[in-house]
Give the backbone structure.
Amino acid sequence: MFIAAALALAAAALADPGDKGKGKAQGKNKFSFQLVNTDNRCDGSGAWATLNETRTYQVHDNGDGTFRLRRVDKGTFTTLAGTSPGNCTTNKSKHGHLIRAGVTGRFGGYLEGTITGGTFNKKATCAAACFTSDFITAFFGAGATFSCDVNSTDCKFNFNYTAPSRSANRPRLLVRHWQDRGKGAGSMLQEVFHGDIASS
């Protein structure tokens, strides 16, 4: 997941936040939302797949006025025809060049950092899609800052995508596992791409 997508994902996405924007509570300080989204290629040239996902925000009070936020994404993807997600010069692993439309698979991953300058309101509601910035503003206030949105070493993420070898994905794919992981954000970002979802 190209880092711009990892932090904000697609601005044009659709979503069903459920429960009138409160999300589905899953235990202490966990909030889940259903999203329809897109994911970008590692070269930043645009979307390579449509995502249907459950996004869960997990909030931990550090006890010093800051909060640890872990965003967990899990769902399915369907590819769009064009350049494959791993086809970029920074990907030094084996990868392809193109992906055909209609290849399906599953993905999962997380984004984790620290929130400062905000006050946590666990009874807040999140309007519309409830992407990361929406969640932070709704649950912590407009003055809150997330370490994954600024120049910082305090951010980490890891997203993995797999297209199973099954009849619906034939002809056989050239590469069928794609990983985008890293640490830091902004000028301190260290991002590593591995593999691809590619048909040629």
Remarks:
- Residues 2-21 have pLDDT under 50 and may be disordered.
- The first strand starts at residue 14 and ends at 16.
